[in-house]
Amino acid sequence: MSLIDQLKFDANGLIPAITRDVENGEVLMLAFMNAEAVEKTLKIGKVHYYSRSRRKLWMKGETSGHVQLVREIRFDCDADCLLISVEQQGAACHTGHHSCFYRSWEESGAQVRGEKTSDPLAAYARHDILNALYDVIQERRRNPSEKSYVASLFGKGLDKILGKIGEEATETAVAGKGGDPEQVVYEVADLLFHTLVLLGYYDLPPERVYDELRRRFGLSGIEEKASRSA
After folding, report:
1. What pairing do the DSSP bridges indicate for beta strands 27-33 and 48-51?
2. 3-state helix/strand/coil string of the chain
3. Using CB atoms within 10 A of its CB, is residue 49 exposed (0-12), middle (13-18) or buried (19+)?
4. In the CATH hierarchy, which fold is given to the domain comprising 7-88?
5. How far is residue 124 from each of residues 54, 80, 136, 194, 204, measured CA to CA in Å?
6. Confidence (pTM)
7. Measured distance CA(5)–CA(42) in Å, rounded
8. Per residue in 40-91, pLDDT tens?
9. Domain named Phosphoribosyl-AMP cyclohydrolase: which ranges (predicted)?
10. Where are the domains of the chain?
11. Distances, alpha carbon 125 to alpha carbons 42, 84, 114, 129, 183, in Å
12. At residue 55, what are phi and psi to the nearest 5 degrees?
């Protein structure tokens, strides 16, 4: 029996699908699928949904490039809801956030986090600060302002970004030589930040770097370098 034969679609031929990040289990979005969307998802390996407003099938990332690569599909005990684990390329939310669920309600003060805050990372309910920071960088890139340092880097082009990375790498080395742990942390943070800007320039999410590090895990440095030479 196929997956589609086991699922219970509603009167409109739809079934809700919860999509989560396979790496950390974070819920990315909730959408709907019809039988054709499920079939396309299984066949191609990239998540397809059905838009109730547009009344048409669509593939996540078909215009933005932020596709969702399927890693596992589950369905609940009543077979009327899907849980899809994916490798998210870029942002899942159309706002540029990694997850559509980037806001949380606070009873004290009765406000929605992330709407108005002095902390640009406060809207991100996640433990992965590098991904969160990357999302903020990309948001600054898409919506530049005169007060944004990130926007100014993108505005000055690739050479400026590369120059800052070289500058921060040198300062990190100097801090390491100086022996002050706090200064080392400070400079490494600067270096990581500007490296994320470079990734943003090429629309490369941090997950691509994680994948490369995962590929190298368990290999000796000598073996890894030898494989690249070959």
Report:
1. unpaired
2. CCHHHHCCCCCCCCEEEEEEECCCCCEEEEEEECHHHHHHHHHHCECEEEECCCCEEEECCCCCCCCEEEEEEEECCCCCCEEEEEEECCCCCCCCCCCCCCCCEECCCCEECCCCCCCCCCCCCCCCHHHHHHHHHHHHHHCCCCCCHHHHHHHHCHHHHHHHHHHHHHHHHHHHHHCCHHHHHHHHHHHHHHHHHHHHHCCCCHHHHHHHHHHHCCCCHHHHHHHHHC
3. buried
4. Ubiquitin-like (UB roll) (3.10.20)
5. 29, 30, 10, 20, 20
6. 0.52
7. 13
8. 999 999 999 999 988 999 999 988 889 999 999 999 999 999 999 999 998 8
9. 29-102
10. 7-88, 128-216
11. 30, 20, 10, 10, 28
12. 55, 50
Residues 6+ positions from 106 with CB-CB distance below 8 Å: 112, 113
Q: Is 102 exposed, middle or buried (0-12, 13-18, 19+ CB in 10 A)?
A: buried
| 219 contacts: CB under 8 Å, gap ≥ 6 | 227
Cβ-contact 184, 175 below 8 angstroms: yes
Q: Which tokens belong to 56?
A: 């048409």
CATH number of 128-216: 1.10.287.1080
Overall size of the chain counted in residues: 230
